[in-house]
Amino acid sequence: MRRFSLLLLALVLGLLLTFALIVPIASQGQPLAGSGPVRVTQVDTSTYPQVSIFAAVSDPAGAPRGDLSRADFQIVEDGAPVELTDFVGAGGSSISTALVIDRSLSMEDADKIAGARAAADAFVSMLRPGDQAALIGFNDRVRTLEPFTADQAELHAAIARLRPAGGTALYDSVIAGVDLLRDQPGRRALLVLTDGQDCRDIVSCPADAGSAHSLRDAIDYAAESGQAVYVIGLGDRSSGGDDGVDEGVLRQLASGTEGSYYYSPDAADLTDLYTALAGSLQGEYRLSYVSPRPFYDGTRRDIVVMVAGERAGAGCTERHLINVTSSPLVGAALLLPLLGLLLLPGWVAARRARGVAAGPAGSGGALPVAPEVIVVAPEVAPAAATSSAGARCTGCDAPLRPGARFCGRCGASQPAPAPAAERRAFCDMCGRPLLPAAGFCTACGEPVRQTQDWVEDASARGAHR
Amino acid sequence: MSKRLQIYYSAIFGALGGLAGWWLIGSVATQTWGIWPAAAFVGAGLGLCMGALVASADGAMVKRKPLRAARDGILGGLAGLVAGALGMLLAQGAFLALLGGWAGRALSWMLLGLLIGAGDLLVSRRPQRAIYAGLGGLAGGLAGGLLYEGLTQLFLAQSGAAQVVLSGVGLVIIGACVGALIPLARQVFARGELRVISGEQAGLVREVTDNASIGRYDGNDLYLPDTGVAWRHAVVRRGDAGFELAVLPGADGLAQVAGLAVDPGASRPLRSGDRIRIGEVELEFVGR
To answer: Against a cut of 0.90, is the pTM above it?
Structure first.
């Protein structure tokens, strides 16, 4: 048993070690978007096994290139080139954008809120037919001020209602944005604007003015949904204090979700930045193909997009932990060996028993023997073994299994074994069972008459039978 | 029946449960469903089959009472159904959060194994026993999940037919691992065991976690279908001062510890190596 538990411990430790070695390799992954002229901005697997890739291509000067055609693109999944089933050129795919805007009290300074409103208005004005946008404002609390709509007038009105007050719950706003975008079709963009740090990270802030979630929570949540976050830092950079944007945090948020980080020192520049972002989103290509490995197996697929001699890597992971298809033929093929394994111990025991019986008796090979008797045979106590080992049929001399009252071969009735010393006795007065060697009945107090009569009587009856 | 053989049978039953689960969930095209309803359905199906088969192994192979096996199986299946659906939802969440891969797969199956093992609570109604079973399920899920992921990676680029076989083999492996490790964990963590020296069940070794009931009734932990054994005869339980044998009040029959009689309603401390006599059956208690 001790060896057994050590074995288990070794097994578990070994597995954990393997686990520990494998996890870092597995989590390294490939960066989704390269920083080169080709960038994969979103991989959409909502209609898997069809995979849609959104790619932005820019010229050496950094301006979006919109003149490429289907033949310019090549896609390789896990080393196998795939054929494009659908191609939407630059400006053709519809975009859903969640505009998340900081409306904490500090946005009042230096006309930052006015700059933010102007930038959002400019973005909304650039919506094309088919595009839609939503507005989320956050301070202590995160509020969806306008759900997804293509109605520009409503969006402008919602933007005009942005009023600065309260703290900064940046991380919660990212989570709200991811939730809002989750079920949107096509390209999903999340633009988050902030001028400060999350109150959660600032000691001087009241406890409830910050996010309920941490930075890590927000990054994990977005990454799990495959949602890139475009983060825009506005105003002064923090010099280690509580004021200004903490670029380290914002960069982490962007890079952890395969998004990008932009910085605008002045609210007046925001409009240009938002316009450029809208242009770059609208200049993306949508490339669709059917995975050459169309299985719902929860494995990762590495994708390479090649265009005009440049390449960008991306990847997607099929989402099912387990999804199986069964077939009766395979089921039967697996069932049979398992049933065989189930019967194996009984068969082995029967074989062994035959060997044991054939040894001393010589003729016992044909005896049908119940397996469990044989399995335990070596463990039977010596006293019990000697009393039963020698038992043989009175009629045909075949060996008997312990306690047998009839012969298994010829069916002859066998004499009962001598009664055990502790044979149960009953009180003459009340009929309840007596404890062994009791002088009096424990139930009624009647003295026990210790005569040998019943023993002799019983054995005589047994022999007679 | 030796402890190893009990583990073996439990593993085979677990494998059969995995196969039955694969057959059941694989005949429904869940890939077109949403990911969460599909996960709940797949988990419920797998939990039902694996839970039922693992729970019925004891009744079927050790006690050899079909009705007991069926009853335990139904309870285990019900517990597995709930635990599996819940566990698979959690596991799918963990899998997505870890973005798949080895870690995601292993952790997810660990969660499912843990909950299927803990479903023993409904069958045995013993928290301690269920905790050990849960730990066993956890280790079984880890081992099975890693093996399954290994197979998946090995046959990644194979055709659809190979994927069908692969998924079946994978679930059989997971079932076998969970099935084997649940009784193994109970045995490893148990502080004592009862060995049947003579009688119908001679050779059977039963672990005692916190307590174990003994009697002719097949719902007892140690089922002794011998003459002189009462329906519910005695309990071996662990108190502050170690293990003791308590004969149940109203137990009709003989009970002795190391040659000394124990009256109904009374108890006697047990030391490792003590011989116990229940009716005509002789047992040995081994403590650790």
So the answer is: no
